[in-house]
Amino acid sequence: MDDVNPAFKYPPMVSTQSNNRHVCGGSLWNGNTEITAAHCSTGIMIDNTVKVHRHDLSKTNEDEDGKVYRVLAKIIHIKYTRWEKGYDIAIWKLATPEGNRTNLELDDGSLGNVDNTLLAGIGWGETKERPRTNILQEVKLPFYNHEQCMKDYEPLSRDIQNSKTQICAGCPEGGKDTCQGDSGGPLFAMKDEKKFLMEL
């Protein structure tokens, strides 16, 4: 993964925090709604907040003109379980509207269906060089079709891949991916200067 450059080029990206520590990524949508992973929304999550307009988490919110929002409610997909990964999505409602400055669109299924379309995975998760990073990272991953994905990752894919709710993106040769700490964060497609949320 590489440092996001320039900083703040992905306004929808947020840091999902527990007790003032980054635990997962997320995407801000419609001002007061974060889209993140269901598994980031369960278990022991204390004093949840969402940090908006952040790049370097070692800096203060004031340094980066960032904001911190309390979480009013978490809505976890009704079909999500620890064993059913195909519905690993949750909505967090924020206490104060941020305003829709993030320019985030939701994909209607038309963008992520062409092999080798490059998608951007974003996060503050672990990298090969270091555990967790304070600087927001990105990696470009090509989309590839469900049939090829199932073939390449058999038999693992039978347990984790749901073609109705998930897509497959990655480098068959390896070496590039998101990692622990990036969970819940976006996989973006870009079109006409807009960011389309493809997957978490």
Topology:
Elements: E1 2-3, E2 13-18, E3 21-29, E4 33-36, E5 48-52, E6 67-76, E7 90-94, E8 104-106, E9 118-123, E10 137-142, H1 146-152, H2 157-160, E11 187-191, E12 194-199
Parallel strand pairs: 8-12
Antiparallel strand pairs: 1-10, 2-3, 2-5, 3-4, 4-7, 5-6, 6-7, 9-10, 9-11, 11-12
Overall description:
The chain has 200 residues and is mostly beta strands. The protein has two domains: 11-94, Thrombin, subunit H (Beta Barrel), CATH 2.40.10.10; 105-197, Thrombin, subunit H (Beta Barrel), CATH 2.40.10.10. 6% of the residues lie in helices and 34% in strands. The chain has a six-stranded mixed β-sheet, with no helix packed on it. A six-stranded antiparallel barrel has the order 2-3-4-7-6-5. Strand 11 (187-191) and strand 12 form a beta hairpin. The longest helix has 7 residues, at 146-152. The protein is globular.
